[in-house]
Design goal:
The protein has 165 residues and is mostly helical. 89% of the residues lie in helices and 0% in strands.
């Protein structure tokens, strides 16, 4: 038996509270038979219970929406961070491969001028590769930011619209 089996759900607690309010209203109404006041009190209590139930449902729905939004956001962020990390690994591997290829070419150079020419070519290619990799990482980071913040922004706008309506 787990600990959670002994803990009542919020719905169970709310329903028990509503039942208790109904019983209290019945007891109050039966204590004063023949008067219209108990009927009026009962109607007011029923209206209060109805309002409380509606408020509870609204709060529960809002909490469920917020939970779903957070789950979606975290899953999107997880996928995006995984993509970002895989790109970083691919770029590091490509850079390492280029360095080893360069070292092999330099080792096979016959003259100093050929080695300098290879060095110049390698530096230019590395700079271009670095610029390309930086653009790619920037695009991925922007994608991550927009995909992660998008659901939060939409949820905030829905909540604001509901509140203002």
């Amino acid at each position: 038996m787990s600990i959670n089996e002994n803990i009542p759900t919020p719905d169970t607690i709310a329903n028990e509270a509503f039942k208790a309010a109904d019983q209290a209203t019945d007891q109050f109404a039966s204590a004063l038979p023949g008067y219209d006041a108990p009927k009026m009190v009962r109607e007011m209590a029923e209206q209060g219970i109805s309002t409380a139930r509606q408020m509870y449902e609204n709060a529960r729905n809002a909490a469920e929406e917020a939970t779903d939004m957070m789950e979606d956001t975290y899953e999107t962020a997880r996928k995006s961070f995984t993509e970002l990390n895989l790109k970083l690994i691919d770029q590091a591997q490509a850079n390492t491969d280029r360095v080893f290829a360069f070292a092999k070419e330099v080792a096979g150079a016959k003259t100093v001028s050929e080695a300098v020419e290879l060095q110049t070519k390698f530096a230019r290619e590395q700079f271009e590769a670095f610029a390309s990799q930086a653009r790619e990482m920037q695009e991925t980071a922007q994608k991550l930011a927009s995909e992660t913040s998008g659901p939060m922004k939409e949820a905030w706008e829905r909540a604001t619209h509901k509140f203002n309506a």
